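Sample pair:
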Amino acid sequence: PHLVSPALEHLRTLTDLPVVVYPNAGGAWDAQAKEWTGSVAATFDEAARWRELGAVLVGGCCGVDADAIRTLVSSAA
């Protein structure tokens, strides 16, 4: 999630097309062990900012559970 705002800011310099964001829960994929490592506590503090930067759909990917989606919905409103 911490990479979404910088990515959107960069994308805005390249296009005005709508974008979709769905970050994972913040962990890192260990391809060798085939498992997520590190922090998996998603924070969507910047979800409203993602909308301001043009994200028309905001969701969650790997490791984002129903509780995190509820937080995301309230943050992005």
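The chain is about 35% helix and 15% strand.
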